[in-house]
From TrEMBL:
Protein name: Mitochondrial potassium channel ATP-binding subunit
Main localisation: mitochondrion
PROSITE patterns: ABC_TM1F, ABC_TRANSPORTER_1, ABC_TRANSPORTER_2
Keywords: ATP-binding, Ion transport, Membrane, Mitochondrion, Mitochondrion inner membrane, Nucleotide-binding, Potassium, Potassium transport, Transit peptide, Transmembrane, Transmembrane helix, Transport
Species name: Strongylocentrotus purpuratus
Domain ABC transmembrane type-1 as annotated: residue spans: 165-454
């Protein structure tokens, strides 16, 4: 078998040059025709290499031909079953274009292995299976910044500034007293040592009481201060976390729909929980121990200088070297921390997506695969975290080594000074305790350093989304008073591409007039852009060119919250409900609605009957995203939710597709009844449901191909008539 082309995935290949098995990564170009050397009976088989398959974990030993074939066949089968996932291209860089290749893919050879083996292979391969995750592209929106927004987090502390100052003052006082303690201890030791000399006259207790009391008071004050700053800081930290989470969640809710098209829920939830938590812990530790440590170092150095400038010199000369080395390691650790946090988010988004789509996972028996994928992502995260841990450990180890070396030099040099009577015993004692203070503080700061690295990076990630401004605001702009609202909608030369896929133009010069009181229907093939029209009407996205006007005013000038909240009733193609009671789900359309109004809306949507049949009626609590009721029931509750707000513009995107003929007829009657005085935009595949519409537009390839009433379009014998005929013959 020969192959030439561009690989979009990874595939097991054999290099003739290196005689080893390798994974060819995504995007590798293979210009020369490459012969297959596996299996002499290999036939030419049409295997698409445009599908992306995942590389297995690195092998310690080269695979056997059987192993190779089983895996290759499984990939081909996965592809046929449509369960091939996008590649992470983990083996990037292994392939050298100059190598001659031989593929381990051979459907002809597969016949040798037999189905039983293939099935066994399937089970085995599944655990390693493919990944549905995409590689995070460098420079893409998924990549987060380098903590550049960190400082902006401080504005969230403004409200607690006094508490914070009190905590800082307590921490500094505790540190200051810590600095004094060696001196007081030195005084005490000096007094005691004087009494050890025989010829010393005087009362021991009298002499010792004063320094001892001073020392005890210092200990007491230090204890109170320590308790004070820890208590205050933990309260400030909790407040800060609450404010950050609220601000982040509020900001996320404001983001454009396009933002949610590209960001995983798991990643966002991780920022809300883990990142805020990381920042809070670091903040508390840095203020308490960091501030205390720095104060102690500064104070101790001053004291030490007072005790012996010579000894202090030994310390001060070497400290900057340690600090500089620490800063260099720190830069590396910060990057590692950011990578580790992002990878953890990624792992969480795998779990989040799988749990949210549990029915799909179960239906495809993908539990093992999902577990493998999760563990694989977690492994990568734990690998990065371990590297970070090693880095932090190395940093701390080196710091400790340097600091202990310093203490040793102090003892060595101090002993010499003591022998030459340049310092006294008490002074040396004070100096040693003070230098140990410095050592302990520096060691604590070095531990803190790792935490601070995580905290800065986490705060950057949190602030990045808090600061992000959506391009479409939630509120602000013109509102049309209810009584002067005609709700004439006009699409004029609309061209549109989704921001996440700018190269694909979904709507091309789309113009449609939806006058008040008329029912406008849009039909056409799947993917034509019908739902996109409704999304633009709701202003989920802004048009690339052209305009959409309501009563002559461009939607970009209108208040989006007025437009969405009060004017448009939108029934989504895939309606989702919340995990609350049916009553509250319907009331979501109008939070002020009474129970009677809720029931009226349900009756209009032909939902009252089945709701009453539930044992708890309107108080029946639904599962997450409306699971636990049927698709048709979900649709009718969604219709009731849209109708309860009495919208002037009603948009129904495949709103009755899940209903049986009878229920559909009833809902259809309702729609006909409620459409009076409203502008109704209906999208339906089942053409029988839109026959009575005033205007039917046939949308194909982003353009309106035909427009007119049912009778007009049937007479024209064009695309619409064709579609109707095909559906009719299909139904019979
Ligand atoms: N959020 C999105 N981001 C990027 N592309 C999208 C998005 N939603 C839809 N598309 C693409 O836009 C095109 C039109 O999609 P749309 O949902 O409007 O089709 P449709 O006519 O409603 O199809 P159907 O009848 O199947 O519901 C499709 O090619 C689709 O892949
Ligand atoms: Mg659609």
């Amino acid at each position: 078998m020969l192959f030439a082309g561009k690989f979009q995935g990874s595939i097991l290949v054999r290099s003739k040059i290196e005689k080893g098995w390798q994974w060819m990564s995504a995007g590798t170009k293979c210009k020369q025709k490459s012969p297959l050397t596996i299996g002499q009976n290999a036939k030419k088989v049409p295997i698409s290499l445009h599908h992306v398959v995942r590389a297995p974990p690195p092998r310690s030993t080269p695979p056997t031909v059987h192993q190779l074939l089983r895996e290759s066949i499984q990939r081909v089968r996965n592809h046929v079953q449509g369960s091939v996932f996008k590649n992470q291209s983990r083996a990037k860089g292994l392939w050298k274009p100059s190598q001659t290749l031989a593929f381990g893919v051979g459907a002809g050879v597969a016949l040798h292995t037999g189905w039983s083996k293939m099935n066994r292979a399937e089970c085995k391969v599944k655990a390693n299976g493919a990944t549905r995750l995409l590689e995070v592209k460098k420079g893409s929106d998924l990549e987060t910044n380098n903590g550049e927004h960190f400082w902006e987090v401080l504005r969230f502390l403004r409200e607690d500034v006094w508490y914070l100052l009190a905590a800082v003052a307590s921490a500094m006082l505790a540190a200051f007293i810590n600095v004094q303690i060696p001196l007081l201890l030195g005084d005490l030791v000096q007094v005691v040592s004087e009494f050890t000399v025989r010829e010393h006259a005087g009362n021991y207790l009298d002499a010792v009481t004063r320094p001892a009391l001073r020392l005890i008071s210092a200990y007491g004050i230090q204890a109170v201060c320590t308790c004070g700053y820890i208590a205050i800081l933990s309260s400030v930290g909790e407040q800060l976390a609450t404010r950050l989470r609220t601000a982040l969640f509020t900001s996320l809710l404001k983001q454009d729909i396009a933002f949610f098209d590209i960001h995983h829920t798991g990643e966002l939830v991780n920022r809300l929980s883990a990142d805020v938590q990381d920042f809070k812990s670091s903040f508390k530790l840095c203020i308490s121990q960091g501030l205390r440590g720095t104060t102690q170092i500064a104070g101790s150095v001053v004291c030490m200088y007072g005790l012996s400038p010579k000894l202090t010199g030994v310390l001060v000369i070497t400290l900057p070297i340690i600090v500089l080395a620490g800063a260099a390691i720190g830069a590396v650790l910060r990057k590692l921390a950011r990578d580790a946090q992002e990878q953890t988010s990624r792992a969480m988004s795998v779990a989040d997506e799988a749990l949210a789509n549990m029915r799909t996972v179960r239906a495809f028996a993908m539990e093992e695969q999902e577990a493998a994928l999760f563990s694989q992502e977690l492994d990568r995260a734990s690998g990065l975290q371990s590297r970070l841990g090693f880095g932090i450990g190395l940093f701390q180890g080196l710091t400790n080594l340097a600091l202990n070396g310093l203490v040793l030099s102090v003892v060595y040099y101090g002993g010499y000074l003591l022998a030459s009577n340049e310092v006294q015993a008490g002074q040396l004692m004070s100096f040693l305790v003070a230098s140990q203070n410095v050592q302990r503080s520096l060691a604590a700061i070095s531990i803190l350093f790792g935490q601070a690295v995580r905290g800065v990076s986490a705060a950057g990630r949190v602030m990045e989304y808090i600061k992000m401004e959506p391009s479409i605001p939630l509120t602000g702009g013109k509102c049309i008073l209810y009584h002067s609202l005609y709700a004439n909608v006009e699409f004029d030369g609309v061209t549109f591409s989704y921001p996440s896929r700018p190269q694909q133009t979904v709507l091309k010069d789309f113009s449609l007039s939806c006058p008040r009181g008329k029912v406008i229907a849009i039909c056409g093939p799947s993917g034509a852009g019908k739902s996109t029209v409704t999304a633009l009407m709701e202003r989920f996205y802004d048009v690339t060119a052209g305009s959409i006007k309501v009563d002559g005013i461009e939607v970009t000038e209108l208040d989006p919250s007025w437009l969405r909240g009060r004017t448009i009733g939108y029934i989504n193609q895939e309606p989702t409900l919340f995990a609350t009671s049916i009553r509250e789900n319907i009331r979501y359309g109008d939070p002020q609605a009474t129970d009677v109004e809720v029931e009226e809306a349900a009756k209009l949507a032909n939902a009252h009957g089945f709701i009453q049949d539930f044992p708890s009626g309107y108080d029946t609590v639904l599962g997450e995203r409306g699971a636990t009721i049927s698709g048709g029931q979900k649709q009718r509750i969604a219709i009731a939710r849209a109708l309860i707000k009495r919208p002037s513009i009603l948009i129904l995107d495949e709103a009755t597709s899940a209903l049986d003929a009878e229920a559909e007829r009833l809902v259809q009657d309702t729609i006909n009844a409620v459409s009076k005085g409203r502008t109704v935009l209906i999208i339906a595949h089942r053409l029988s449901t839109i026959q009575n519409a005033d205007v039917i537009a046939v949308l194909s390839d982003g353009r309106i191909q035909e427009i007119g009433s049912h009778t007009e379009l049937m007479k024209r014998k064009g695309m619409y008539a064709d579609l109707v005929q095909r559906q009719a013959s299909h139904d019979h």
